[in-house]
Amino acid sequence: MQRNPYLEDRDKKNNASANLPARLNILLGIALTLMIALIVQLAFLTIKQGAYYQSEVNRNDETIEKGNTPRGMFYDATGRVIVGNKAQAAVTFTRGTSVTSSTMRGIATKLSKFMTIDTKRLSERSKVDFYLANKSNNEKITKIITKKYKNDKLSLTTEQINMYEVRYVQKHDLAKNVDQNAAMIFQRMSGAYTLSTTFIKESDVTNTELAEIGERLSEFPGIKLGTSWSRQYPEGNEFKTLVGTVTNEATGLPEDRLHTLLAQGYSQNEPVGNSSLEKDYESILKGSASQTLVTTGSGGQIKSSQIKYNGQAGDNVKLTINARFQSAVQKILEDNLPGGDVEGAYATVINPYTGGIYAMAGVDRNHETGQKTADPLGNINHAIVMGSVIKPAVLATGFQKGVISQNNTVLNDQAIKIQGTPAITSYWNQAGTPTPIDAETALERSSNTYFVQLGMKIGGQTYSPGSALGLRPDAFQTLRNGLGQFGLGTKTGVDIDGETAGYRGATTGEAQGKYLYETFGQYDSYTTLQLARYVSVIANGGYLVAPHIVGALTQGQPNSDKQKTVWTATPKVQGQVKLDAGEWDTIENGMNRVANGSDAWNTGGADMHKLIPKVHAKTGTAETVTNGNQTYTESMVAYTPGQPFAIAMAIPGMNNYLDGTNGKISAKIIDAYWQYVEAKPNSK
């Protein structure tokens, strides 16, 4: 019998219809089971955990918001304010816990209509971020990026999408027309981390800006009208170079310390010490920030704030500098500086017993334009070939090595003729005629050839006319060690960054002959502060004392103008030069004769001779080349016996030889000391 296809198809449909209720029942059973499970879960959450979730909805977060406080001030040794603070109106922004870039963009855009800020430091990246903070712009660029990479079958993370968005905006220069004033405000706001306060504008806020913004504070969440402090210099702006500078909202954090400062909690445009003492004592000057307890709701909105700690202004730094004396020394240098090729002048006045620096003044001079710039730190970072001022240290080394004795210091001043080196003579004995002189006369006349012969003896050779140089291999090091006892050629350890140790020339090969010039200060270079420490050793009887400029740290007291001293500097002895009393007498008598002697070839000069009380001194002259011309450095070290006073000064690049400028300037500085620092003693 043939099969009936119709009947077979009908049977299949009937069988399928018969199975439908069974499948439907299974699906309904699954749905019913899931519904029951959902009801049970809802009941559990409502009954058992309802209170917990209700508390989460009503939860308040408490966070500490930090504010800013005035920086500590700088005082001079007499209590005068050198660097103070000037309060001024400011506009600040405190970033809430849920503030987004889009929110900040909206605030910045509105705020820019009522306030103008400097846009010089607006970065290209901030312009891009400002552009993308616009929701419409962001969605459009995101769509382009995701579509492009979706077609490439790549899956991107949120960070990757943001990176490609920035690149896209930069490539197509889409941010070129953004409102730069608004973008700069946005950049400053972005520099704040959660619940920190940063300055939007910390200076030059106009009365109109204050009024316009004050009327609309409710429209600018996180914006406040506050106070900032800028540095002021009651004793003159020249102290800015010595003490250093502080960044402001325009300059931002220093690039070389940016990441470190951000890690320490600074915001992008928070003031911070940028150089010299302001930088070195940042942690002390910064003080402690005010603390406000901020309560925020679950949505991030600020519900309340309560001041928990008003903050503490930074501790103050009291210097050993005498402000009036410092200004006087600076003016003396500027007013008496010669012209021509002169590169500047530097002077340090120090207490030889404590190391405290009374004044450290300097002038840098552009020999092409004649322009003078205050350069007090040139005393620590400008190394100079100083000349004969180092001769007392060479004499001391000779005593210590036993090549000369205090009972017989006589040597001939004569022309020094060593094979392979130019002849060396003293300025007062150009003919080189052998002339017996003792050590004191050699200091008074500044005999170069006396100290060349003394130096050769230290190096293991007695001078013989026309002989070859035959020094011991360690001669250079031996002499430098002798000078190093007095601090020459080593850093002083002064409490200011940027000090140099000077320059030490080569000692081998053709440079071996330079040893002869080292003996009278015509080779290695030193800083003026090194000279001040060096002459202090002679003044205090042989102790190498570290110089310092910070004398104490003080702390302001609540409801009082008085300062509490929290730290005081004490003398730091770095070494000792050991000589017999008679050997010290020889050095001191020679320096006394320099400043007060009557020898026909006396080097002290009339200005130094007139000083009362009398000083001991040593002059120096070094031959140099400046601007292609033969020039000279004139230098001077001096001290007043028994008094807490010593001075070192140098003038590099002079065109005239032995014109007495060093004596004239030194005498004026010494007179100023007795006028401004302490009363002149009666003794002569």
UniProtKB/TrEMBL annotation:
EC annotation from Swiss-Prot or TrEMBL: 2.4.1.129
Transmembrane segments: 20-44
Major subcellular site: membrane
Organism from which the protein derives: Leuconostoc inhae
PANTHER family xrefs: PEPTIDOGLYCAN D,D-TRANSPEPTIDASE (PTHR30627), PEPTIDOGLYCAN D,D-TRANSPEPTIDASE MRDA (PTHR30627:SF2)
Domain of life according to the entry: Bacteria
Molecular-function GO term, any one: glycosyltransferase activity
Annotated compartments: Cell membrane
Family: Belongs to the transpeptidase family.
Chain ranges of the Penicillin-binding protein dimerisation domain: 69-304
Membrane association type: Single-pass membrane protein
Any one of the GO BP annotations: cell division
Alphabetic keyword roster: Cell cycle, Cell division, Cell membrane, Cell shape, Cell wall biogenesis/degradation, Glycosyltransferase, Membrane, Peptidoglycan synthesis, Transferase, Transmembrane, Transmembrane helix
Residues of the Penicillin-binding protein transpeptidase domain: 346-670
Organism lineage: Bacteria, Bacillati, Bacillota, Bacilli, Lactobacillales
Official protein name in the record: Cell division protein FtsI [Peptidoglycan synthetase]
Top class in the EC scheme: transferase
One of the Pfam families matching this protein, by short name: PBP_dimer
